[in-house]
Design goal:
The complex is a heterodimer.
Chain A lengths: L3 E4 L2 E5 L4 E7 L4 E9 L6 E7 L4 E4 L2 E6 L4 E6 L8 E9 L7 E3 L3 E6 L1
Parallel strand pairs in A: 2-11
Antiparallel strand pairs in A: 1-3, 3-8, 4-5, 4-9, 6-7, 7-8, 9-10, 9-11
Chain B lengths: L3 E4 L2 E4 L5 E7 L5 E7 L6 E8 L2 E4 L7 E2 L9 E3 L8 E8 L8 E2 L3 E5 L1
Parallel strand pairs in B: 2-11
Antiparallel strand pairs in B: 1-3, 3-8, 4-5, 4-9, 5-6, 7-8, 9-10, 9-11
Classes of the chains: A mainly beta, B mainly beta.
Chain lengths: ~110, ~110
């Protein structure tokens, strides 16, 4: 069964600190992996997308890594800000059909305190 | 910020009522999607469309129906709302391509009493 597991389920950090969120997946065949940020009451917004051959990709203070061999990804947030408080969702796409089916994790709820 | 809109943002309605959730995008995307999301849970695909007059059911069984008469418009209809339909409904669109990114609307929070 294709799955996407994220950890931790929730995380509280102080403003200015760094943090790392984890994503493990069993989706096969693998096409790409995305990290989305979902603010409370809003739809998810794409942060990064990585294909099989990419190991790391940055978007400002967000850096995503991918190890396709171990099927693991991480999202590192540097110098956190209050506005980083949100749910971070890992999404994996397979290439088993023309749909490019997406598998969603349940997200990590990040809270940044002042 | 993606140009995809959903209305209403919040809806409280009684059991048995017919409701339509609106979704529109101005990006000219062929593909559109409806997801259902409960608090703390993952998104579940309930409907998708590859273009005008094309609609398919997603992974999660849903009593809702959709239509795609125009590229920019993808409404979702519940003929008879029930309390089990209480959830957040997210609409998304994307351009065709291997690295398609889905752009999400703000969502509609539905409460059926």
């Amino acid at each position: 069964k294709n799955q996407v597991e994220q950890s931790p389920q929730s995380l509280i950090i102080l403003e200015g600190k760094n943090c790392t969120l984890q994503c493990n997946y069993t989706v096969s065949p693998f096409s790409n992996l995305r990290w989305y940020k979902q603010d409370t009451g809003r739809g998810p917004v794409s942060l990064t997308i990585m294909t099989f051959s990419e190991n790391t990709k940055s978007n400002g203070r967000y850096t995503a890594t991918l190890d396709a061999d171990t099927k693991q990804s991480s999202l590192h947030i540097t110098a956190s800000q209050l506005s980083d408080s949100a749910s971070y969702i890992c999404v994996v796409s397979d290439r088993g059909s023309t749909l490019g089916r997406l598998y969603f994790g349940r997200g990590t709820q990040l809270t940044v305190w002042p | 910020e993606a140009d995809i809109y959903q209305t209403p943002r919040y809806l409280v309605i009684g059991t048995g009522k017919k409701i339509t959730l609106e979704c529109s995008q101005t990006m000219g995307h062929d593909k559109m999607y409806w997801y259902q999301q409960d608090p703390g849970m993952e998104l579940h695909l309930i409907h998708y469309s590859y273009g005008v007059n094309s609609t398919e059911k997603g992974d999660l069984s849903s009593e809702s129906t959709v239509s795609r008469i125009r590229t920019e418009h993808f409404p979702l209809t519940l003929e008879s709302a029930r309390p089990s339909h209480t959830s957040q409904y997210l609409c998304a669109s994307g351009a065709s391509g291997v690295e398609e990114t889905q752009y999400f609307g703000p969502g509609t929070r539905l409460l059926v009493l």
